[in-house]
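Q: Could you fold this chain for me?
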Amino acid sequence: MRHMVYVIGPCAASASDCDQLQRIHAYGIQPHCVEGIKVTGLARTVIDCACVMDPCGAVAVLDSAIRRGLTKQELYAECNRQHSDCAAVFHLLPHADQRSENGGDTPEVQLYRGSA
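A: Sure. Below is the predicted structure, expressed as structure tokens.
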């Protein structure tokens, strides 16, 4: 299984980028510092995951973020702030359930997997 590395910033892809590097082109991102590493905030990270992951994985990320206190209103506000396509977030958000303990718990994830 190949793992991708996602980097967000104003720079576009470069010919020297390796195949596993995926750049998310964006301006005005307010970084958060976690143990000395600049990262995007929770709402922005969840939105990016929803846009690049398969629906099962994205719902699991949404479940976890909402369980940790991120509100749907904060996600909608971040979508409005970044002025980019948040269709995946709007599609998946109604399926998010903070009561799930892992990504396979929610009926929505099971439905996406075809096992419901």
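A (continued): Residues 55-67 form the longest helix (13 residues).
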